User: What shape does this take?
Amino acid sequence: SQPRTASHPDSDAGSVMSPAGCSHVNGFKVDNWKQNLRVIYQCFVWSGSVETRKRKAKSCVCHLCGAHLNRLHSCLHCVFFGCFSKKHIHDHAKNKRHNLAIDLLYGGIYCFVCQDYIYDKDMEQIAKEEQRKAWKLQEFCKTSGIGEKYSMWEPTKRELELLRHNPKRRKITANCTIGLRGLINLGNTCFMNCIVQALTHTPLLRDFFLSDRHKCEMQSSSCLVCEMSQLFQEFYSGHRSPHIPFRLLHLVWTHARHLAGYEQQDAHEFLIAALDVLHRHCKGDDNGKKANNPNHCSCIIDQIFTGGLQSDVTCQVCHGVSTTIDPFWDISLDLPGSSTPFWPLSPGSDGSVVNGDGHPSGATTLTDCLRRFTRPEHLGSSAKIKCSGCHSYQESTKQLTMKRLPIVACFHLKRFEHSAKLRRKITTYVSFPLELDMTPFMASSKESRMNGQYQQPVDSLNNENKYSLFAVVNHQGTLESGHYTTFIRQHKDQWFKCDDAIITKASIKDVLDSEGSTHKRTQ
Amino acid sequence: MFNRFQFLFQTNISRESQMRAAINQKLIEMGERERLKELLRAKLIECGWRDQLKALCKEVIKEKGIENVTVEDLVAGVTPKGRALVPDSVKKELLQRIRAFLAQHST
Assistant: This one.
C-alpha cells in the first residue's frame, strides 16, 4: 500500500506534509457518492436542523448493543451503526467486507484495510462544507454573533512556498520573552512609555496588529495607527535592545498638541489622547462624521475600549427618570482623602461580597471606589433639574451605572487633585483584585434591585461581566517630579515591570501592592 | 429479521443505559448537546487542558514515529491521562448545565 501521511499543521518536523487518502475509497466513489456522503454528514454527524436532529437522536445507536457512546461509527456502504470501542463496527466491516466507516462525533473517515483514519481531499472538502452549514444553522451562532466556526489555519500553496523559502522558525514557549521590550526615555517621556507598554500587551490589540488588519486610508505618512503597527512589529521582533520611540513621540506631538513639550505629562491624559487619535485615524475620511458618535464606529479601538455609561436622573417629586447613555473609554474614580466626600456608600450593593474584598488592614478597595461611583447622589437644592414630568425645576438624584461593558476596561484612580486651593497627589493605598466582577455595577443589576427582585447570589458560572487584570500603571513621586512605570502580564500568569528601558520579572504580590493609578483589565 | 433485531435490542439494555439514551436523545433533539460541546470546548481551552493534551500527543508521535503512528495509538496513549486531567470545576459546570436543562425540560 502507498505510504500514508496525515497533515499536522503544528508538527515539529521541518517538511510540510500533504493530506492523502488511500486507494480503498475508490470503490466508494461511484455514482452519486458525493450527495450520499453529504446526506450522511447532515443527518448523522452535524445535524443543523430540527428534523435532522430528531432523526439523529432516535437512530444513532449501535445496532448490536444499543449504546450511543463508545465512539459510534456509521458504515459508509450500508445503514449500520456500530461502536468503535467495542469493535462492533469492525465485526460488521469484516463480515460484509464494507471497508469504510465514518466517526459520528468528528466526521473522520476510517478505512479498515489501512486500519487508520484517512484524509481524502474530496471527502475532506465535503466534510468542511457540511460542518460550516450546520454551524450556521445553530441558534447560538445567531445570538453569540460568531458567524463562522473556528477552523485551524491551513497554508495555501503560496504560503507553503514562502515557508519553504524561509525555514527559520520561532517557538513560543512558556518562558519566552517575546513581546517584551524596553523603551528609551526621550526626556520625561515615561508618561508615554508606560501606556505604550500597556497597549502592546493588550491581547486583542496585539492580535489585530500582528495579523496586519489595518488598511491605511490616510494620504500622508502621519497615521498613528500605522505607527502603532510598526511598534508592534518592533516589540514582537525578538530584539532585546530597548526601542527608541522617536517617531511615535513626534506623531503624538503633531496630533495632540497639548501633550507636546519636554515637561512631564499625565499618563491618563496620554491614554485618552492616544485612543482618540487612533480612533480617528482608523477609518480615514469617514471618521470625520463618526468622530463624535462612537456608537456607530466599528474601528478596533471602539470595539475593544468603548463602553456605555448610563446616567439616571430621578425627579424627587414625580419620580420620573430621565436616562442617558454616554460612551466611555475609561472609568475615573475618586479616592478617599480627596476633597470630594467618599461616603456614604449606597445601601444594599454587594460589591464587596462578590469580589472577595477583605484586605487585612481594612484598606479601601477598588470595589469601594466603584460602589461610590455608582451610588445615587442627591443633587441638592442649588442644582435643580428641569423635570419634564413636573414641568418645573425640582431636586433630583443622579446615579451612574454600567450599561455596556467594554472588552478592555481602564480604571483610573484620580490621584492628582487640582482644586482651587491645592494641587497634590493622593497616595492612599487602594487594593485591587486580580479578577473583578462588574455585575453589581451594571444597569441591569440596579434595575432588578429596584424591582424588588432578590439579588441573585452572583452566578459564578456566568463570566460575562468578569475581568482579568493584565496591566497596572504606577506613578512614583510627587506631582512636580515623578516617574511612571507599568506592570504587565504575559503568558497568563507571569508579570513584568516595565521601567522605561528596563524590564524585570515581577511577582503578583509586587503588582497588587503597588499604587495602581491606572490599571486595565480584559474580559 | 427486523423484529428479531428489535427483541435483541430491548433485552440488552439495562435501565441505566435506557435513561442515558433518553437524556442523550433529548439533548440532541433540542440542540443542547451541540451547545454543551461548544461550552466544553471553550472551557477546556481556557484552562489549558487542550495544550496539555497536545503535548501528550506530540510525545506519542515522537515515540512511534510520525510515519507509523495511527489515530488508535494516540487514543490509547492519551485517553486515560487526558480524562484524569480534566479539572473538577469543568466537570461540575457541565453537570450543572445538564441538570438545569433537564429541570427545564422534564416531561
Summary: Residues 1-18, 284-290, 345-354, 356-360 of chain A have pLDDT under 50 and may be disordered. DSSP finds 17 helices and 23 strands in chain A. Residues 186 and 246 of chain A are 8 Å apart (CA to CA). Chain A touches chain B at residues 3, 5, 8, 10-13, 47, 50, 53-54, 56-58, 60-61, 63, 65-69, 108, 115-117, 138-140, 461 (CB under 8 Å).
